[in-house]
Write a structure and sequence with these properties.
about 200 residues, binds manganese (II) ion, 9 strands
Length: about 200
């Protein structure tokens, strides 16, 4: 865990992404409630990046097909390098030639609660243990994603890019409707095209 890999992959002279130097103090203070964000990322392959705040960084997974609210669909989620907390507000365009070049939208954002194997409220320690064991459960209270989800590690990938499955649990929020059709930024209400066109705002 840490930001070494994040920093090694990027040249901050070129990319408008956060450097990870700042250590923002976050609102809250409740041990159970932490932040999550999903960014839609139009890189060489369009994907959605799901990020959970754990011990001061954002644990991150790239989901090629995006998140689903349908318990019958299990989507591959590839764990990638930890990102700095301030990445949760990053929206803009990473210039060509840079790592992850392409437009990034804050597709959803909110609070998550870590849950144990019985889906009871857990703590940050619960999620840390789950990450080590390869199975985490959490409840999301976002603008688009709500309810209980799991990420379960499967075979495949490697040490730096392990493979997990995104699974929606049956609950009142489960749905067969395609949540990806909700396609505007929860931060700025912009579409991907509007973000891509807006060069002035891509540097934060
Ligand atoms: Mn990405």
């Amino acid at each position: 865990m840490g930001l070494k890999s994040y920093k090694q992959k990027r040249s901050f002279k070129q990319t408008p992404e956060p450097t990870g130097k700042k250590k923002p103090h976050l609102e809250g203070g409740k041990e159970e409630a932490h932040l999550f964000v999903i960014q839609k990322h139009d890189a060489s392959h369009l994907h959605y990046d799901f990020r959970l705040e754990v011990e001061g960084v954002l644990k991150s997974w790239a989901i090629p097909k995006g998140p689903s609210m349908n318990p019958a669909e299990k989507h591959l989620a590839i764990m990638v390098e930890d990102h700095p907390l301030e990445y949760r507000d990053f929206e803009g365009t990473i210039p060509e030639g840079s790592y992850g070049a392409g437009t990034v939208m804050v597709w959803d954002q909110g609070i998550y609660y870590s849950l144990d194997d019985q889906y009871q409220l857990g703590t940050e320690k619960t999620i840390k243990e789950g990450l080590r064991k390869g199975k985490i459960h959490f409840a999301l209270a976002g603008k688009k994603l709500k309810g209980i989800f799991s990420l379960v590690k499967i075979k495949g990938g490697d040490e730096n890019k392990s493979h997990w499955l995104w699974i929606k649990k049956e609950d009142d929020f489960a749905s067969t409707q395609d949540v990806l059709k909700k396609d505007k930024s929860v931060l700025t209400q912009r579409t991907m095209n509007q973000i891509a066109m807006d060069k002035s705002l891509s540097k934060k």
